[in-house]
User: Which sequence fits this backbone?
């Protein structure tokens, strides 16, 4: 058994990548039942009763271990960590900020944590802060990105693996057995999968979002600037028109605050659909069990 599997307590080293504020106990439980590590997205959670309810709901549907993702900036992280620890959750991931202060809290509650990093310098800093593992996310990934220069998963994962002695999980660009095996060959002990699970049968994403992923071809995602951050989105006609227009400042056109409403309703003129470059490889909506079985199979 690898250190990662020991930490997660599941069968396969596949972590369900959190997606904004989108939560579905059914999806988390289905991922756990299929042998991977389901995750609640607690990064934007402010309602502690809702946090408790989600944890309970997952536990009604599965007795397998699951985790949660926290965003460093969330002021109620300590309360969320206590709810998770009380419920017996053993592992969390943390994103978007310096992990320095939260790791003593995670460890004091008897949990372990892996920090999501987008660059080599951030990986080094996270190790200094005492993280138990790293989720190393290359630039092809879905989700928030930095505005600085970034490397692909193919480059960033081995770079980090060579310099740390905690488990590394590769994130970004992985949707099938080829990506999974490539990540392991790069030295990662596991993978984090985001976009592929959005386009799953159990995902609560609206059909419009799932279809946008299925219809997304090579080169049809882009980094949308949000000021001090970027987010990877699927380019739609409205966004294409704005991108092609030299006078338009995209940071004034789209506000991240509208993303949950847009993504829940499929209104991608309000805010474009979030997804990774790997969308180009996703051609079918499948149950998570089939997705996970294909990922860990000997493959094509
Ligand atoms: C629409 C979208 C929203 C995301 N939101 C978050 C988030 O809130 N916190 C986080 O740590 N990662 C977030 N991610 C990143 C995923 O958890 C995961 O690491 C990433 O999707 C992996 O790359 P892939 O999309 O190529 O599978 C998001 C990804 C997507 C596609």
Assistant:
């Amino acid at each position: 058994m690898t250190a990662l599997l020991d930490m997660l307590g599941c069968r396969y080293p596949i972590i369900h990548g959190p997606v904004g504020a989108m939560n579905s106990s059914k999806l988390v439980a289905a991922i756990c039942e299929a042998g991977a590590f389901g995750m609640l997205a607690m990064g934007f959670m402010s309602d502690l009763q809702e946090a408790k309810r989600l944890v309970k709901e997952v536990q009604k549907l599965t007795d397998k271990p699951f985790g949660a993702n926290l965003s460093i900036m969330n002021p109620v992280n300590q309360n969320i960590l206590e709810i998770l620890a009380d419920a017996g959750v053993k592992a969390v991931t943390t994103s978007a900020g310096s992990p320095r202060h939260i790791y003593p809290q995670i460890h004091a509650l008897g949990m372990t944590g892996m920090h999501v990093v987008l660059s080599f310098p951030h990986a080094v800093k996270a190790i200094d802060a005492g993280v138990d593992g790293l989720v190393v996310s290359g630039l092809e990934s879905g989700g928030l990105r930095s505005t600085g220069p970034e490397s692909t998963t193919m480059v960033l994962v081995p770079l980090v693996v060579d310099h740390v002695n905690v488990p590394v999980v590769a994130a970004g660009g992985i949707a099938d057995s080829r990506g999974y095996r490539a990540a392991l060959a790069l030295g990662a002990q596991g993978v984090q999968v985001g976009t592929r699970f959005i386009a799953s049968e159990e995902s609560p994403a609206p059909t419009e979002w799932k279809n946008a992923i299925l219809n997304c071809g090579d080169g049809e995602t882009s980094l949308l600037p949000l000021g001090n951050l970027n987010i990877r989105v699927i380019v739609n006609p409205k966004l294409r028109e704005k991108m092609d227009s030299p006078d338009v400042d995209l940071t004034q056109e789209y506000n991240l605050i509208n993303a949950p409403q847009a993504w829940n309703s499929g209104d991608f003129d309000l805010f474009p659909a979030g997804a990774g470059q790997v969308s180009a490889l996703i051609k079918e909506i499948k149950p998570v069990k089939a997705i996970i079985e294909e990922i860990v199979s000997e493959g094509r």
Observations:
- The first helix runs from residue 3 to 8.
